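Reopening this ticket.

The earlier resolution said the output was attached, but the attachment link was broken on my side. Pasting everything inline this time so it's all in one place.
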Amino acid sequence: MRLTYIRWGMTVIETGGFILVTDPVFRILGIHQAPQSYTWDRMPRPDLVFISHTHLDHFDPAALRHLDPHTPVWMPADQVQKATRLGLRAVRGLHEWESITFKKVRLTAVPAKHRGGELGLIIEGDRTVYFAGDTSLDRDLFRTIGGRWRLDAVLLPIGDLRCLGVHLGHLGPRKAPQALRLLGEPRVVVPIHYSGMTLGGFLDFRGTPRRLSQAIHEAGLGTLLGTTRPLETIEI
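Inline output:
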């Protein structure tokens, strides 16, 4: 299984020839998101697109219009109406804890704790991976996931995004070790949701892979940091 972090919640997950793209975002308010070298033509053709929720840093209608209209796009059931005018013919609404086998890969939608209605995804292919999407620390949720699945890797948001210095409810390096411990200390963590766009002191990320690595070391966890910057790929 190959895991690649792009920007915000956008990742590419490859397992046994199956390609899953999560939260494909290229532009926000017309601004091309960093890293700007990753343009539409670099994204592999996905077998499935998963949208964790429809906040503008995770839901890019223009990007979805670029897809082959028959590409399956899965997203929270109560947010499907936001994709109905994009010309997509295979949109599917998911509910919490719903499991589906698609092209020999088992996929389970799991809750996320953010502003309401978000989902994460468990991917069971040649390895078992948890894409946490956009979430804060939810001890009960992470304990449940860690007890139900033996995770090989987790794609975990660590950006600790702030607006005018105010915490927006995103997970950061300080609390990430608690999440990893509750999840059963997966072998690998791929940090996500720490790059895309900053606007000086108005909007900025406080969490970085370096700070996550330090927090993991200080907590004495055995989880390895899988990638240290956008566009890196790890094979597990």
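Reporter confirms the inline version is readable. Residues 2-227 form a domain with the Metallo-beta-lactamase; Chain A fold (CATH 3.60.15.10). The CA atoms of residues 26 and 40 lie 7 Å apart.
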